Amino acid sequence: KQEVTQIPAALSVPEGENLVLNCSFTDSAIYNLQWFRQDPGKGLTSLLLIQSSQREQTSGRLNASLDKSSGRSTLYIAASQPGDSATYLCAVGGYQKVTFGTGTKLQVIP
Amino acid sequence: EAGVAQSPRYKIIEKRQSVAFWCNPISGHATLYWYQQILGQGPKLLIQFQNNGVVDDSQLPKDRFSAERLKGVDSTLKIQPAKLEDSAVYLCASSVEANYGYTFGSGTRLTVV
Questions:
Q1: What residues of A are in contact with residue B107 (Cβ under 8 Å)?
Q2: B62 exposed, middle or buried (CB, 10 Å; 0-12, 13-18, 19+)?
Q3: Fewest Cβ atoms nearer than 10 Å: which of A37, A93, B80, B106?
Q4: What is the interface size between A and B, counted as CB pairs within 8 Å?
Protein backbone atom coordinates (compact mmCIF):
# COMPACT_ATOMS: atom_id res chain seq x y z
CA LYS A 1 0.00 0.00 0.00
CA GLN A 2 1.42 3.37 -1.03
CA GLU A 3 1.92 5.88 1.77
CA VAL A 4 2.65 9.52 1.04
CA THR A 5 4.09 11.88 3.63
CA GLN A 6 4.56 15.63 3.43
CA ILE A 7 6.81 17.39 5.88
CA PRO A 8 6.49 19.94 7.33
CA ALA A 9 2.74 20.13 7.87
CA ALA A 10 2.98 23.91 8.09
CA LEU A 11 5.58 26.46 7.10
CA SER A 12 5.80 30.22 7.58
CA VAL A 13 8.41 32.26 5.70
CA PRO A 14 9.08 35.94 4.98
CA GLU A 15 8.34 37.27 1.52
CA GLY A 16 11.17 36.83 -0.97
CA GLU A 17 12.59 33.68 0.56
CA ASN A 18 13.27 30.58 -1.53
CA LEU A 19 11.71 27.46 -0.06
CA VAL A 20 11.44 23.71 -0.54
CA LEU A 21 8.45 21.51 0.17
CA ASN A 22 8.98 17.78 0.56
CA CYS A 23 6.96 14.74 -0.45
CA SER A 24 8.05 11.18 0.27
CA PHE A 25 6.43 7.92 -0.80
CA THR A 26 6.99 4.30 0.13
CA ASP A 27 6.43 2.44 -3.18
CA SER A 28 8.73 3.50 -6.01
CA ALA A 29 6.61 1.75 -8.69
CA ILE A 30 4.84 4.94 -9.73
CA TYR A 31 3.54 6.33 -13.01
CA ASN A 32 3.71 9.99 -12.13
CA LEU A 33 3.69 12.55 -9.35
CA GLN A 34 1.62 15.71 -9.39
CA TRP A 35 1.82 18.82 -7.22
CA PHE A 36 -1.32 20.77 -6.45
CA ARG A 37 -2.16 24.00 -4.73
CA GLN A 38 -5.33 24.38 -2.67
CA ASP A 39 -6.67 27.69 -1.43
CA PRO A 40 -9.04 27.67 1.56
CA GLY A 41 -12.48 26.37 0.61
CA LYS A 42 -11.45 25.78 -2.99
CA GLY A 43 -10.64 22.88 -5.25
CA LEU A 44 -7.16 21.75 -6.25
CA THR A 45 -5.17 23.54 -8.91
CA SER A 46 -2.54 21.52 -10.71
CA LEU A 47 0.93 23.06 -10.58
CA LEU A 48 3.28 20.49 -12.07
CA LEU A 49 3.05 16.91 -13.31
CA ILE A 50 6.18 14.76 -13.47
CA GLN A 51 6.01 11.47 -15.34
CA SER A 52 8.00 8.57 -13.90
CA SER A 53 10.59 8.84 -16.70
CA GLN A 54 11.28 12.50 -15.89
CA ARG A 55 13.50 13.99 -13.21
CA GLU A 56 12.04 17.48 -12.98
CA GLN A 57 9.51 19.96 -14.31
CA THR A 58 9.56 23.75 -14.19
CA SER A 59 6.87 26.38 -14.44
CA GLY A 60 7.74 29.99 -13.72
CA ARG A 61 9.04 30.24 -10.14
CA LEU A 62 8.22 26.60 -9.45
CA ASN A 63 10.48 23.61 -9.93
CA ALA A 64 9.55 20.07 -8.99
CA SER A 65 12.00 17.18 -8.88
CA LEU A 66 11.44 13.45 -8.66
CA ASP A 67 13.78 10.76 -7.37
CA LYS A 68 11.93 7.48 -7.64
CA SER A 69 14.71 5.35 -6.19
CA SER A 70 14.70 7.27 -2.93
CA GLY A 71 10.93 7.83 -2.94
CA ARG A 72 11.15 11.59 -2.83
CA SER A 73 9.91 14.66 -4.62
CA THR A 74 10.57 18.29 -3.83
CA LEU A 75 8.74 21.44 -4.87
CA TYR A 76 11.01 24.46 -4.99
CA ILE A 77 9.42 27.91 -4.88
CA ALA A 78 11.71 30.80 -5.75
CA ALA A 79 11.26 34.33 -4.43
CA SER A 80 8.10 33.54 -2.48
CA GLN A 81 5.19 36.00 -2.51
CA PRO A 82 2.19 36.46 -0.20
CA GLY A 83 0.00 35.13 -3.02
CA ASP A 84 1.80 31.81 -2.73
CA SER A 85 0.12 31.25 0.65
CA ALA A 86 -1.94 28.07 0.31
CA THR A 87 -1.81 24.35 1.06
CA TYR A 88 0.41 22.34 -1.28
CA LEU A 89 -0.44 18.69 -1.91
CA CYS A 90 1.48 16.02 -3.73
CA ALA A 91 -0.31 13.12 -5.39
CA VAL A 92 1.52 9.94 -6.33
CA GLY A 93 0.07 8.04 -9.28
CA GLY A 94 0.36 4.26 -9.27
CA TYR A 95 -1.41 1.72 -11.48
CA GLN A 96 -4.96 3.10 -11.70
CA LYS A 97 -4.63 4.53 -8.22
CA VAL A 98 -3.51 7.89 -6.89
CA THR A 99 -2.49 8.53 -3.29
CA PHE A 100 -2.44 12.02 -1.82
CA GLY A 101 -0.29 13.40 0.94
CA THR A 102 -1.88 15.45 3.70
CA GLY A 103 -0.31 18.67 2.47
CA THR A 104 1.96 21.46 3.63
CA LYS A 105 0.24 24.68 4.64
CA LEU A 106 2.42 27.58 3.52
CA GLN A 107 2.15 31.13 4.79
CA VAL A 108 4.28 33.83 3.18
CA ILE A 109 4.49 36.90 5.39
CA PRO A 110 4.72 40.31 3.68
CA GLU B 1 -10.65 24.12 -22.61
CA ALA B 2 -13.50 24.22 -20.12
CA GLY B 3 -12.65 22.86 -16.70
CA VAL B 4 -14.39 20.30 -14.52
CA ALA B 5 -17.79 21.65 -13.46
CA GLN B 6 -19.35 20.80 -10.13
CA SER B 7 -22.59 21.82 -8.47
CA PRO B 8 -23.75 22.91 -6.05
CA ARG B 9 -20.85 24.85 -4.49
CA TYR B 10 -22.29 24.63 -1.01
CA LYS B 11 -24.95 22.51 0.67
CA ILE B 12 -26.23 22.42 4.24
CA ILE B 13 -28.51 19.57 5.25
CA GLU B 14 -29.73 17.95 8.42
CA LYS B 15 -28.51 14.49 9.37
CA ARG B 16 -30.55 11.64 7.89
CA GLN B 17 -31.45 13.77 4.87
CA SER B 18 -30.25 12.91 1.39
CA VAL B 19 -28.09 14.97 -0.94
CA ALA B 20 -26.73 14.69 -4.46
CA PHE B 21 -23.73 16.25 -6.16
CA TRP B 22 -23.16 16.63 -9.88
CA CYS B 23 -19.96 16.64 -11.92
CA ASN B 24 -19.31 17.34 -15.58
CA PRO B 25 -15.75 16.38 -16.54
CA ILE B 26 -13.61 17.85 -19.25
CA SER B 27 -14.81 16.74 -22.66
CA GLY B 28 -13.03 13.60 -23.80
CA HIS B 29 -11.75 12.63 -20.36
CA ALA B 30 -12.44 8.95 -19.90
CA THR B 31 -11.55 8.72 -16.23
CA LEU B 32 -13.58 10.43 -13.51
CA TYR B 33 -12.93 10.44 -9.79
CA TRP B 34 -14.88 11.46 -6.70
CA TYR B 35 -12.86 12.41 -3.64
CA GLN B 36 -13.87 13.29 -0.10
CA GLN B 37 -11.70 15.82 1.71
CA ILE B 38 -12.26 16.32 5.40
CA LEU B 39 -10.89 19.54 6.86
CA GLY B 40 -7.16 19.28 7.48
CA GLN B 41 -6.73 16.03 5.56
CA GLY B 42 -5.71 15.08 2.07
CA PRO B 43 -8.36 13.95 -0.43
CA LYS B 44 -9.59 10.38 -0.09
CA LEU B 45 -10.74 8.52 -3.20
CA LEU B 46 -14.35 7.41 -3.00
CA ILE B 47 -14.87 6.05 -6.50
CA GLN B 48 -13.12 5.97 -9.86
CA PHE B 49 -14.88 5.49 -13.19
CA GLN B 50 -13.34 4.53 -16.49
CA ASN B 51 -15.95 5.65 -19.03
CA ASN B 52 -19.16 4.40 -17.35
CA GLY B 53 -17.57 1.44 -15.55
CA VAL B 54 -16.37 1.42 -11.94
CA VAL B 55 -12.63 0.81 -11.55
CA ASP B 56 -12.29 1.31 -7.80
CA ASP B 57 -14.96 1.88 -5.16
CA SER B 58 -13.19 0.15 -2.29
CA GLN B 59 -13.44 3.19 0.00
CA LEU B 60 -17.02 4.13 -0.84
CA PRO B 61 -19.38 3.56 2.12
CA LYS B 62 -21.86 1.65 0.03
CA ASP B 63 -24.53 1.50 2.72
CA ARG B 64 -25.12 5.22 2.28
CA PHE B 65 -23.13 6.46 -0.72
CA SER B 66 -23.85 5.74 -4.36
CA ALA B 67 -22.48 7.09 -7.60
CA GLU B 68 -23.19 6.66 -11.26
CA ARG B 69 -21.78 7.89 -14.52
CA LEU B 70 -24.37 7.53 -17.20
CA LYS B 71 -23.13 7.40 -20.79
CA GLY B 72 -19.57 7.87 -19.56
CA VAL B 73 -19.87 11.64 -19.23
CA ASP B 74 -21.60 13.37 -16.29
CA SER B 75 -21.60 11.80 -12.87
CA THR B 76 -23.67 12.11 -9.72
CA LEU B 77 -22.71 11.20 -6.18
CA LYS B 78 -25.51 10.64 -3.65
CA ILE B 79 -25.54 10.31 0.11
CA GLN B 80 -28.59 8.82 1.78
CA PRO B 81 -28.97 9.17 4.73
CA ALA B 82 -26.29 11.70 5.64
CA LYS B 83 -24.36 11.58 8.89
CA LEU B 84 -22.54 14.36 10.72
CA GLU B 85 -19.17 12.84 9.77
CA ASP B 86 -20.02 13.25 6.07
CA SER B 87 -19.32 16.99 6.43
CA ALA B 88 -16.48 17.56 3.98
CA VAL B 89 -15.60 18.94 0.58
CA TYR B 90 -16.49 16.58 -2.25
CA LEU B 91 -14.14 16.94 -5.16
CA CYS B 92 -14.58 15.66 -8.68
CA ALA B 93 -11.60 15.22 -10.98
CA SER B 94 -11.08 13.89 -14.47
CA SER B 95 -8.17 12.77 -16.61
CA VAL B 96 -7.71 11.68 -20.19
CA GLU B 97 -6.92 8.19 -18.97
CA ALA B 98 -5.93 6.66 -15.65
CA ASN B 99 -2.27 7.31 -14.83
CA TYR B 100 -2.38 10.74 -16.46
CA GLY B 101 -2.56 14.02 -14.57
CA TYR B 102 -5.77 15.21 -13.01
CA THR B 103 -7.90 18.30 -13.37
CA PHE B 104 -10.10 19.07 -10.38
CA GLY B 105 -13.37 20.92 -10.08
CA SER B 106 -13.97 23.57 -7.42
CA GLY B 107 -15.66 21.09 -5.13
CA THR B 108 -18.91 20.99 -3.15
CA ARG B 109 -18.71 21.88 0.52
CA LEU B 110 -21.22 19.79 2.45
CA THR B 111 -22.20 20.62 6.01
CA VAL B 112 -24.38 18.14 7.88
CA VAL B 113 -26.01 19.56 11.01
A1: 42-43
A2: exposed
A3: B80
A4: 54
